[in-house]
Design brief:
Layout (H helix, E strand, L loop, with lengths): L9 E2 L9 E6 H6 L1 H11 L5 E6 L3 E3 L28 E3 L7 H10 L3 E5 L7 H12 L11 E5 L4 H9 L4 E3 L1 E4 L12 E5 L6 E5 L6 H6 L2 E4 L6 E4 L5 H8 L6 E6 L1 E2 L2 E3 L8 E5 L6 E5 L6 E2 L6 E8 L11 H9 L1 E7 L7 H12 L6 H18 L1 H9 L22 H16 L3 H18 E4 L6 E3 L9 E9 L11 E13 L3 E2 L17 E3 L4 E9 L9 E2 L3 E3 L5 E2 L4 E12 L2
Helix pairs in contact: 2-5, 9-10, 10-13, 12-13
């Protein structure tokens, strides 16, 4: 397809203030979903400098839409009738981060948040990949993300408007999880995790105020090694129990794992269990549960939630109007979601978001946990840069391609299916006997994960775990000036000065930074400590005062500071890094 330069138009563009919010939307969607764009602008104008960018993507006619069927094999709508269905929408095929208008505009605006508003036909893998590359291309001098981003999509304008208008911050207190291993119940006030590996088993945590949860499960439990929780056995298929807990108004987070595709989630991984599917309908895609026995159950739970599909293949791939991602939003109140748009086999980024979520509950928002996990992945790629270049030059860079030391995105032409085959199957076996096979497996996995995930929702909407009362945080991380400018980052006047700063990481509990495997679901913190900054400072001429060559190199951007610690840091111990920098504080 011929690529054309994007045509950008600006609305309400203001000077950078360290907290800018940018909406990126196609010309067509800015008209058809005008109410959504307007709602975002109205919501964020009081607290951010807001800009709206419109683009005109290169498009091609969509393939004939698949016949929309209900899961009981009845046709929901006659899609072959011109009277019943409007003409097929056009799919986005070009959103180039190398376009001078896009990059130049974002470099000038320097927003903290980027919200891409996209209809389901636009929200294809091409768009997701382009957004990933776009958010790394604003500052070409370093390989990390330059903006906190999300894609706001939904089955309809009405559903998208619900997400756009959500203003009340969410404190996550209760979780329903389809994985025991992938959900640390100790970090929630209450919740239930169904075991995808062992039939008839779930783990439940409840408080005195939430004792009704046990009655809801209809099961008997006994204390077990899971601290603060009860391991329970339930009779029959767990699918109806999952529905009951999803519909509990106290539930405000969902976690799923195991076998899935765009139109279904299988409750069991090592056993035959029920399924969650999508039923097409005029009102929108309806999430339904199909137990092994008994009637199909509609899932209806409209209260706001966040959703992590870190352990599922394809759950976040919007491949049509009746996919799981859109059904979770429509039927289950999902306002923000992270997941994979491809078959997942490495799991570093998805499960890495949980490491940040559980290490210090409430310190980072759900959006920031995804953002932090991406920076940890890009850091790992930076560390293995030589291996990336070697493998990329051999033609195995995949669609991500290229080296990671710069923002360049060129590389091998290997398609996603081939990268999946080489990485997930062939390299996994080679790694067991060949040290270089293990390196290649890791590099390909990082390159794969770099653009295989997506974050849906308004990135500036605040959803965070309640502060943990049971075990507390693992560490604190602070950046503070020693000599130079005031720590007040809200100063009204712009200035440029040279100053001495220090970054201090203090272990409250013994911290294990190095994960046991890419998709480690247990080790905490399990990822390098990261501190979100307010973006009002631009760092130049950074000179780190290293006491030894063994000290990790501090990563510093206007958005975050990250210290690549490895091994363990014992409780009560701390690590301090001092650096001198020229600091531009922006009004």
């Amino acid at each position: 397809h011929t690529h054309t330069r994007l045509n950008l138009k600006f609305f309400n563009t203001m000077s950078f203030s360290g907290g800018g919010y940018c909406v990126l939307v196609s010309e067509a969607t800015s008209l058809s979903w005008k109410s959504v764009v307007d709602a975002l602008v109205d919501k964020h104008t009081p607290s951010h400098s807001v800009s709206v960018l419109r683009y005109s993507p290169t498009s091609c006619p969509a393939s004939p839409p698949p016949q929309r069927k209900q899961q009981d094999n009845t046709v929901a709508k006659d899609t072959n009738s011109a009277a019943a269905e409007p003409p097929a929408p056009r799919f986005v095929k070009s959103l180039s981060p190398n376009d001078d208008f896009v990059i130049g505009s974002l470099r000038r605006l320097q927003p903290r948040y980027l919200c891409v508003v996209a209809t389901p036909p636009e929200c294809c893998r091409t768009l997701v990949r382009a957004v990933h590359r776009l958010t790394r291309a604003i500052d070409a001098s370093q390989p990390y993300s330059d903006v906190v981003w999300g894609i706001l999509t939904a089955a309809s304008e009405a559903d998208a408007l619900i997400v756009a208008r959500e203003v009340t911050p969410l404190t996550v207190r209760r979780v329903v999880s389809g994985s025991v291993e992938g959900c640390d119940l100790s970090r929630f006030e209450s919740g239930i995790a169904f075991d995808e590996l062992v039939h008839h088993r779930h783990v439940e945590k409840y408080t005195a105020a939430g004792a009704a949860c046990v009655a809801l499960s209809g099961s008997e439990g006994n204390s077990n090694a899971v601290v603060g929780s009860v391991v329970c056995q339930h009779q029959g298929d767990s699918t109806p129990l999952i529905v009951a807990h999803l519909q509990n108004p106290a539930t405000n987070m969902i976690i799923t794992s195991g076998h899935a595709r765009e139109t279904e989630w299988n409750v069991g991984y090592r056993f035959k269990g029920g399924q969650f599917r999508v039923r097409a309908g005029d009102a929108g895609p309806q999430l339904v549960a199909k137990p092994l026995d008994g009637p199909t159950l509609d899932v209806c739970s409209p209260n706001p939630k966040v959703y992590s599909a870190a352990g599922n293949c394809l759950m976040a791939h919007v491949n049509g109007p009746d996919c799981m991602a859109l059904a979770w939003m429509h039927s289950c109140g999902v306002r923000q979601m992270l997941g994979y748009t491809k078959p997942t086999w490495f799991g570093f980024l998805g499960w890495g978001a949980h490491r940040y979520l559980f290490a210090n509950p409430g310190r980072l928002t759900f959006t920031e946990c995804y953002f932090a996990s991406m920076q940890a992945l890009l850091l790992r790629l930076e560390e293995v840069q030589a291996d990336v270049r070697r493998i990329g030059s051999a033609g195995g860079g995949g669609s991500s391609g290229g080296g990671c030391g710069s923002k360049g995105e060129s590389g091998g032409a290997t398609d996603d299916a081939e990268l999946y085959r080489r990485g997930g199957a062939g390299l996994g076996r080679a790694a067991a006997t060949n040290p270089m096979g293990e390196v290649e497996h890791r590099v390909r996995g990082l390159l794969f994960d770099r653009e295989a995930t997506v974050f849906y929702g308004d990135p500036a909407w605040v959803a965070r775990l309640a502060k943990s009362q049971q075990d507390g945080d693992y560490y604190t991380m602070d950046l503070r000036p020693i000599v130079g400018p005031s720590s007040d980052t809200n100063a009204s006047a712009a200035s440029t000065t040279e100053a001495l700063f220090e970054v201090v990481v203090c272990a409250i509990r013994t911290c294990t930074w190095t994960p046991t495997c890419p998709d480690d679901k247990v080790t905490l913190p399990g990822r390098p400590p990261l501190l979100m900054l307010d973006g009002s400072r631009k760092w130049t001429n950074v000179r780190v005062h290293q006491e030894s060559q063994d000290q990790p190199r501090l990563v510093l951007t206007p958005l975050f500071a990250m210290l690549p610690l490895t091994g363990q840091l014992q409780a009560g111990h701390s690590v301090t890094h001092r650096f001198t920098a020229t600091v531009e504080t922006r009004a």
